[in-house]
């Protein structure tokens, strides 16, 4: 990369060399650079940088850490710079650092230059300079680098320069009569500072001057509401003066410049397609009610005073409307209680200014029972009356009502809010045809798609984030929430971030004298996931959930009640089929029905239920299903996982395959697997469930299920470097095995493997001694061979090479006697490694070649990869470096193909060590970084070794 350096701090911190962006490293390194950039070439002391990185007590090594981060940044700006060289970009002056930077290489300096030029100009030239300066801003200064929810004062000060420039630009643009040039920048700044009255006043005046008086008035109302709700104050003099000027004579009286498409209120609808009503079509002027000629309908419910968050969905809606001029409907779906209605009303208020001919609203009651569901005819009659059609002029038939309704909407830009829609059949007649009107609809089902028109788009509403949930409680409870953050966190967790539940708890918190938030949190915790923990609000939650439950078919209702019996919150379609005693096809159909209202699908073929819906289902199950049926469902699930785990461990080529489990007495079959990758993916998806069953199966009188699943997971744990989880799961299996000597022996040997990878060699030997005694008593010679070979592996690690050869040769003899080719080849591999460490490289190479040939004949990819790795290592020991690199690459390909991340990482470490020893630190660091990425954050011994290498390397 060549070219000059350039930097940006007016938004996310970024840097480029020429046209190539520079990776700025960790968050701490980006923070340091952000403060240096905000100083724009000014000095920053080391003490300031320490305070920047550590808000509370800095560690004793803080100054050294700062120096190290600065050194890394220097080398990113000047590649090839020696480790302790001063450099020419990020320079040190005593106890301070500063960037050597010119006026054109930093956006902040360019911004200041343009603002100064604008201040010395006038008219349209000044406005254009302000526009160019404000266009440099992409977000807040150093966005994304706030610490503890607060921005550094230096960044806040730079933000202040932007807002001052916006105010100055507004004044100049208003005088020059070209406010449209800077209106986007004014809008954006006002969004960032919604409580800054001076900025909001600028926005009001700019909107009015651009002919958007209706939007300005709506904006004022929104600001007034926000100030009262969040600060408890009335608008100040700046805002009041701006509102007063909205009615001055020097701005358009009707906002017509922003509404070129508005037609007169009285329209002439097109004729219907025949029918009894055709004689009276269209309604005469006399048949239209006074509402037609008066103010447009304004039926939106009030916006919720405590609405928070959902910015991403609001932005998605606005983007759809901006990009697709044919959008006629936004259909918001989500689970019960997620806040669909509240959001739809809020979104409607946000968009209302775009639809100056009014708003219509109807609750279609789609999930109410019986006759209370609103029909399309009923909804249309109400809308037509609101649109000015007298009752006598409303046609009797549905298609004629819809035709009249669409004819009227074709002449207007209106917003129609349809709440609680059941399906497309209920709302398709209520959608506008041509013209510029918009429907916002809510449904518990995802009803867009092939059945809906092309102009309809789905918006899915998910649970609140943790931050949004905390904001909701804080806004409702005020100081009480701030005083008890631990209680707030507990309440959020118990409510599962469901807006309805949080709102009900907040109501309880403020509605019962003397009831503290810790007490509310304690009640929820004591309820142990039951809805009863919500006290009086229990009935409200139950009622909301029941609307969806009552709409289910009997089969789906039964499965809904059984789902909480599954050990985890997420399950596959196959597991649900076992739980319900269903065929896979029947389970798919019922889950699709549930998924429309009561489940979410986080991944292909997997399903999840919200905790509170789960609690509701538990209560329904205990009420409607007897204990025998529920117990049988659990047994079916355990059968499914035991059979599937056995089937999944076979493609992983275990050294000691488990014996085939007994067929299920309940007719359950396990899952089939297409190969190793499929099996590994299944273990990853079901790991939590499987380990939970291992821990609980003994209590249900199924000890063999516990230890068989534990052993089936061994190769998965080994290949994914989850050695602690391996040890914990097999230990639980050993506790369940009781007095079964065969199970105990297998589990002791498996635990020895976990100890080996955890570098606890003495404990590993102890488990192997237990296994050896048990296998000797049982007369199982092949298993004794595995024990001898495992002891040889440990002796290799202890550098007792002659002992390792003795144990491996004993293992090989046992395997040959039993005809176990794979076991004998593994023993040969151990002997070859020991010979290599003893300096007998020629003998070792011959043995490795023979072992690889045997593993390839067996189809054992794990064995092939291991042999290739040691063969490459041996070539490196005799300085045949090209051959070593070729075979290491073969080992990488083999292990990656087998999804054996731990072994892939081991090979990459060896490659990195090789490059480091041969004086190529760049290639060494690259290989070690790739190795750490393979382990994906695990805290295994190899991961710690890699991190130590990388730290030393830097």
Write the layout of secondary structure elements.
Elements: E1 5-8, E2 14-17, E3 20-21, H1 27-38, E4 44-45, H2 46-53, H3 62-77, E5 90-93, E6 96-99, H4 107-119, H5 123-134, H6 153-176, H7 183-192, H8 197-209, H9 213-231, H10 237-245, H11 290-293, H12 311-323, E7 329-333, H13 340-351, E8 359-363, H14 376-386, H15 398-410, E9 415-421, H16 424-427, E10 438-443, E11 456-460, H17 466-477, H18 479-483, H19 485-495, H20 499-511, H21 517-526, H22 537-550, H23 554-562, E12 570-572, H24 573-580, H25 584-595, E13 600-603, E14 606-608, H26 611-624, H27 627-649, H28 676-696, H29 703-712, H30 714-719, H31 723-737, H32 741-757, H33 761-778, H34 781-797, H35 801-818, H36 821-837, H37 841-858, H38 861-877, H39 881-897, H40 901-917, H41 921-935, H42 941-953
GO molecular function: ADP binding; DNA binding
Keywords: DNA-binding, Transcription, Transcription regulation
Domain OmpR/PhoB-type: 1-101
């Amino acid at each position: 990369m060549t070219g000059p350096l350039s930097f940006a701090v007016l938004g996310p911190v970024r840097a480029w060399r020429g046209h190539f962006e520079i990776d700025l490293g960790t968050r701490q390194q980006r923070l340091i650079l952000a403060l240096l950039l905000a100083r724009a070439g000014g000095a920053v002391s080391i003490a300031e940088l320490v305070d920047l990185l550590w808000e509370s007590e800095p560690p004793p090594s803080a100054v050294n850490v700062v120096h190290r981060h600065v050194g890394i940044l220097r080398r990113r700006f000047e590649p090839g710079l020696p480790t302790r060289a001063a450099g020419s970009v990020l320079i040190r002056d005593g106890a301070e650092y500063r960037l050597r930077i010119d006026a054109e290489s930093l956006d902040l300096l360019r911004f200041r230059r343009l603002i100064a030029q604008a201040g010395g100009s006038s008219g349209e030239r000044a406005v254009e300079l302000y526009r160019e300066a404000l266009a440099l801003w992409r977000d807040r200064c150093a966005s994304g680098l706030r610490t503890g929810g607060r921005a550094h004062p230096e960044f806040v000060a730079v933000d202040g320069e932007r807002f001052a420039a916006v105010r100055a630009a507004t004044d100049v643009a208003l005088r020059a009569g070209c406010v449209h040039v800077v209106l986007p920048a004014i809008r954006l700044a006002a969004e960032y500072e919604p409580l800054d009255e001076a900025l909001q006043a600028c926005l009001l005046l700019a909107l009015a001057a651009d002919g958007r008086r209706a939007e300005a008035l709506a904006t004022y109302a929104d600001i007034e509401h926000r100030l009262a709700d969040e600060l408890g104050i009335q608008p100040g003099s700046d805002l009041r003066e701006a509102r007063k000027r909205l009615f001055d004579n020097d701005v358009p009286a009707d906002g017509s410049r922003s509404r070129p498409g508005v037609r007169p209120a009285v329209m002439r609808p097109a004729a219907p397609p025949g029918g009894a009503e055709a004689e009276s079509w269209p309604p005469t002027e006399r048949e239209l009610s006074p509402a037609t000629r008066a103010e447009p309908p304004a039926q939106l419910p009030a916006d919720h005073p405590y609405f928070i968050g959902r910015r991403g969905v609001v932005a998605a809606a606005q983007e759809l409307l901006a990009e697709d001029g044919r959008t006629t409907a936004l259909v918001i779906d989500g689970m019960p209680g997620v806040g669909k209605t509240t959001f739809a009303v809020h979104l409607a208020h946000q968009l209302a200014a775009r639809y100056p001919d009014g708003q219509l609203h109807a609750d279609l009651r789609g999930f109410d029972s019986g006759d209370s569901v609103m029909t399309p005819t009923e909804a249309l009659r109400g809308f037509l009356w609101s649109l000015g059609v007298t009752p006598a002029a409303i046609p009797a038939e549905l298609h004629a009502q819809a035709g009249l309704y669409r004819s009227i909407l074709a002449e207007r830009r209106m917003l129609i809010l349809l709440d609680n829609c059941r399906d497309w059949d209920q709302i398709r007649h209520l959608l506008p045809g041509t013209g510029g009107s918009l429907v916002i609809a809510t449904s518990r089902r995802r009803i867009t798609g092939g059945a809906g028109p092309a102009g309809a788009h789905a918006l899915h509403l998910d649970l609140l984030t943790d931050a949004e949930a905390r904001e909701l409680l804080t806004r409702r409870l005020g100081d009480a929430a701030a005083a008890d953050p631990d209680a707030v966190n507990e309440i959020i967790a118990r409510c599962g971030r469901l807006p309805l539940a949080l709102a009900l708890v907040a109501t309880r918190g403020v509605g019962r004298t003397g009831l503290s938030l810790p007490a509310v949190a304690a009640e929820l915790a004591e309820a142990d996931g039951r809805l009863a923990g919500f006290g009086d609000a229990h009935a409200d939650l139950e009622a909301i959930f029941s609307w969806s439950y009552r709409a289910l078919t009997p089969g789906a209702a039964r499965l809904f009640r059984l789902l909480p019996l599954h050990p985890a919150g997420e399950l596959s379609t196959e597991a649900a089929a076992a739980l319900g005693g269903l065929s896979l096809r029947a389970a798919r159909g019922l889950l699709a029905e549930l998924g429309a209202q009561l489940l979410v699908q986080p991944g292909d073929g997997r399903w999840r239920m919200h905790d509170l819906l789960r609690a509701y289902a538990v209560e329904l199950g205990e009420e409607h299903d007897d204990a025998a049926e529920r117990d049988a469902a659990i047994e079916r699930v355990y059968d499914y996982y035991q059979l599937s785990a056995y089937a999944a461990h076979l493609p992983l080529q275990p050294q000691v395959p488990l014996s085939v489990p007994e067929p299920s007495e309940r007719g359950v079959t396990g899952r089939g697997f297409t190969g190793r990758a499929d099996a590994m993916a299944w273990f990853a998806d079901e790991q939590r469930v499987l380990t939970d069953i291992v821990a609980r199966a003994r209590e249900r009188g199924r000890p063999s299920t516990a230890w068989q699943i534990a052993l089936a997971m061994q190769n998965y744990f080994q290949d994914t470097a989850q050695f602690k989880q391996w040890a914990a799961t097999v230990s639980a299996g050993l506790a369940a095995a009781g007095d079964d000597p065969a199970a105990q022996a297998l589990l002791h040997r498996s635990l020895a493997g976990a100890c080996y990878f955890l570098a606890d060699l003495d404990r590993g030997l102890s488990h192997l001694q237990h296994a050896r005694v048990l296998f000797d008593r049982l007369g199982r010679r092949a298993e004794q061979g595995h024990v001898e070979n495992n002891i040889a592996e440990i002796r290799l690690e202890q550098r007792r090479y002659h002992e390792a050869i003795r144990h491996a040769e004993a293992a090989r003899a046992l395997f040959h006697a039993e005809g176990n080719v794979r076991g004998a080849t593994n023993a040969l591999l151990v002997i070859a490694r020991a010979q290599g460490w003893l300096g007998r490289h020629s003998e070792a190479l011959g043995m490795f070649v023979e072992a690889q040939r045997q593993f390839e004949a067996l189809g054992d990819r794990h064995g092939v990869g291991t042999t290739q790795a040691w063969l490459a290592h041996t070539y490196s020991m005799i300085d045949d470096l090209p051959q070593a690199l070729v075979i290491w690459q073969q080992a990488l390909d083999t292990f990656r193909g087998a999804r054996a991340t731990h072994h892939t990482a081991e090979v990459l470490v060896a490659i990195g060590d090789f490059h480091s020893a041969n004086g190529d630190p760049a290639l060494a660091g690259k290989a070690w970084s790739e190795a750490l990425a393979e382990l994906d954050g695990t805290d295994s011994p190899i991961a710690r070794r890699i991190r130590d290498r990388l730290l030393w390397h830097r």
